[in-house]
Amino acid sequence: DTAVSQTPKYLVTQMGNDKSIKCEQNLGHDTMYWYKQDSKKFLKIMFSYNNKELIINETVPNRFSPKSPDKAHLNLHINSLELGDSAVYFCASSPSGTAIFYGYTFGSGTRLTVV
Amino acid sequence: GNSVTQMEGPVTLSEEAFLTINCTYTATGYPSLFWYVQYPGEGLQLLLKATKADDKGSNKGFEATYRKETTSFHLEKGSVQVSDSAVYFCALSDSAGAQKLVFGQGTRLTINP
Predict the structure, then answer these.
(1) Which residues pair with residue A10 across a beta bridge?
(2) Which of B32, B51, B100 sits opposite A45 (nearest CB)?
(3) Those residues with Cβ within 8 angstroms of residue B21's Cβ, 6 or more apart along the chain or in another chain
(4) Around Cβ B97, how many Cβ atoms within 10 Å?
(5) Torsion sign (Cα): A25, A26, A32, A38
(6) Is B49 within 8 Å of A102 (Cβ atoms)?
(7) Inter-chain touch B101–A104, beta carbons under 8 Å
(8) To the nearest whole angstrom, how far is the Cα of B14 from the nearest Cα of chain A?
(9) Chains A, B: CB contacts under 8 A, how many?
(10) A109: distance to nearest CA of chain B, Å?
(11) Which of B8, B88, B43 is nearest to A109 (CA)?
(12) pLDDT at residue number B28
């Protein structure tokens, strides 16, 4: 009965590969997010979707493409992986219009290592 | 743009010591303020929040008061335990339309028995 689940938990891959990270939430939330946490623990928002519509698209390389097939899922596809993409990627969700009052529910993260 | 600044870590304390982790913010409008905690190998969990000036958020013995005059939201706990060892993040809500949270850089706390 995990609220926000991400798969895989760990991902080790070679430079130049294409990989996807999946996120699913069973909380009935309308809004989902992807955050990147670098090696110094700094968290930066990448994307947000509300009911399958992209609402936040920060300055992220075009190699990163989010996809939301329905409001319970938000996947992240990364093309041509680079060493600098190594990080922990967190998915989060919130009910529509409430994040500014109640915050998010986070997944447990996907540790991506590019070698 | 809006931003959050936390005290530099790491912070190391003995069990039962008093804890303060400083957080100051820069924001337009009236953001909500949050503290999140990240235990090793886990995602972030909401610890407490405050949505308007002078509100006090509290949970699990932790407290923080929204101080508009000093633009601060310092985290305090009177007596820390080894189990409080984690990374603590201060955050604010950015804009009503985009529903974005902006996080500070995190403060690693280690409690020694």
Answers:
(1) A111
(2) B100
(3) B6, B7, B11, B74, B75, B76, B88, B90, B107, B109
(4) 10
(5) negative
(6) yes
(7) yes
(8) 24
(9) 74
(10) 6
(11) B43
(12) 84
Those residues with Cβ within 8 angstroms of residue B77's Cβ, 6 or more apart along the chain or in another chain? B18, B19, B61, B62, B63, B84
* Nearest beta carbon to residue B105 from set A42, A92, A100: A42
Q: Do A99 and B93 touch (CB under 8 A)?
A: yes
For the stretch B53-75, pLDDT in tens is 999 999 999 999 999 999 999 99
Quote the CA–CA distance of B65 and B88 in Å, as a whole number.
Answer: 16
B43 has a chain A CB within 8 A of its CB? yes
Q: Is A44 exposed, middle or buried (0-12, 13-18, 19+ CB in 10 A)?
A: middle
pLDDT band at B95 (very low <50, low <70, confident <90, very high): low
Instruction: Tell me whether A99 touches chain B (CB under 8 Å).
Output: yes
Q: Where are the alpha helices (DSSP H) in A26-85?
A: none
